[in-house]
Amino acid sequence: MTYRRALLTGWFSFVEGEVTAGDVLALRRAEEVVREAGVAYDVAWSPGFRPGEPSLETVRPDAYDLLLFVCGPCSGPQPAALHERFVHCRRVAVGVSVIDPEDPAVRGFHEVIARDGGAALPRLTPGGAPGPSPDLSAGTRPPHPLPPVVATVLTTGQHEYAGRRRHEESARHVTDWLGGQDCARLELETRLDTRDWRLCGTPEQLDAVLARVDLVVTNRLHGMVLALRSGVPAIAVDPVAGGAKVSAQARALGWPAVIPAERLDDAALAHWWEWARGEGRSRAAAYAGTPQPEPLAAALRDSLGRSGESTDHAIRPV
After folding, report:
1. Of 36, 21, 25, 27, which Cα lies nearest the Cα of 141?
2. Which residues contact 149 (CB under 8 A, 6 or more apart)?
3. At 221, which helix (H) or strand (E)?
4. Which residues lie across from 217 on neighbouring strands?
5. Phi/psi-derived region of residue 118, left when phi > 0, alpha when psi is between -120 and 50, beta in every other case
6. Torsion angles phi and psi, residue 61, rounded to 5
7. Residue 310 confidence (pLDDT)
8. How many CB atoms sit inside 10 A of residue 125's CB?
9. Please, what's the b/e burial string for 27-48 (b: 16 or more CB within 10 A of its CB; e: otherwise)?
10. CA distance 67 to 88
């Protein structure tokens, strides 16, 4: 049979559904098979995920004679509603899980090519071997190169800076900007807690994560220091108007990628993003591989050697 045009759907098509990485990869594999068969097609996306793309609300059902439902559970009212709207189409579900073979969502398809479904599989896939099949996503391979992994280490606290605080604004601007970049984002905390499984319990556990990322974006002093210590470039934002400890530490370390709160904008982030992914990588690696001067530790040793000489209050530069 020659199809005029197919519409590819799945849980990624429903406003009340969800879009998972596995679903999208399964969709890509289905698209490859459809293209190999020489069938023209569209994909219906949830407008909440890809606004402006074809959706179930905007496509004309009479433009299609084949409906494919790809991946996920084949159950519930949302998939079942497709049968009524696309009643004139041949309807095929592929790579789905069958929970109840009598579910209207299942019964409405002309063919169900199931990945799993227990006793239902032999009936739903005549002539096929009973039992589960590898998911469609297993037939895809990650591209090379992959997008960078970017860790954020951000704070909206530090109220000791009072009216000079720009912490909320800096964190919001950074995360809004990062949301538009092609990267894998990982939210990290420098706070340790042995009772919270989501947080690291030791500095070494945090080191293990930092060593595996490509870039750190932070408005925290230790976010920058610990990244460089691990040989990872950091884009540091000083969240205090007029500059404070983040800018001071950047000067102490000789690290140029620091943005004052007053000059935080998309252009500054984009500039340091390109720098950090190029020259910044070698600069950070060199920092991690070279012993650094430790004036604070030296001053402490000196102070301990002078114990008892004076009890007067003093703040002295190093």
Report:
1. 25
2. 183, 184, 186, 212, 213, 214, 215
3. helix 221-229
4. 152, 235
5. left
6. -55, -35
7. 63
8. 17
9. bebbbeebeeeebebebbbbbe
10. 10
Angle between helices 221-229 and 203-210 (to 10 degrees): 70
Question: What pLDDT, in 10s, does the model give residues 210-237?
Answer: 999 999 999 999 999 999 999 999 999 9
The edge-to-edge listing of strands for the beta sheet with 111-116 is: 41-43, 6-9, 66-73, 90-97, 111-116
Report whether pLDDT(293) > 90: no
User: pLDDT for 5-56, tens place per residue?
Assistant: 999 999 999 998 889 999 999 999 999 999 999 999 999 999 999 999 999 9
Of 231, 138, 221, 215, nearest in space to 182 by CA: 215
C-alpha distances out from residue 78 to 10, 65, 87, 101, 123, Å? 10, 20, 15, 16, 23
pLDDT over 80 (residue 273): yes
Q: What is the Cβ-side half-sphere exposure of residue 152, based on CA atoms within 13 angstroms?
A: 19
pLDDT for 92 equals: 97
Asked if pLDDT for residue 120 goes beyond 60, the answer is: no
| DSSP, res 286 | H
Spell out a b/e string for 205-214, using b for 16 or more CB atoms within 10 Å of the CB, else e: ebeeebeebb
DSSP lists the bridge partners of residue 114 as 96
Asked if 97 and 121 touch (Cβ cutoff 8 Å), the reply is: no
Q: What is the pLDDT of residue 163?
A: 78
- Count other Cβ atoms within 10 Å, centred on residue 79: 27
Share of the chain above pLDDT 90, in %: 74
Question: pLDDT confidence of 193, banded at 50, 70, 90?
Answer: very high
Radius of gyration of the chain (CA): 28
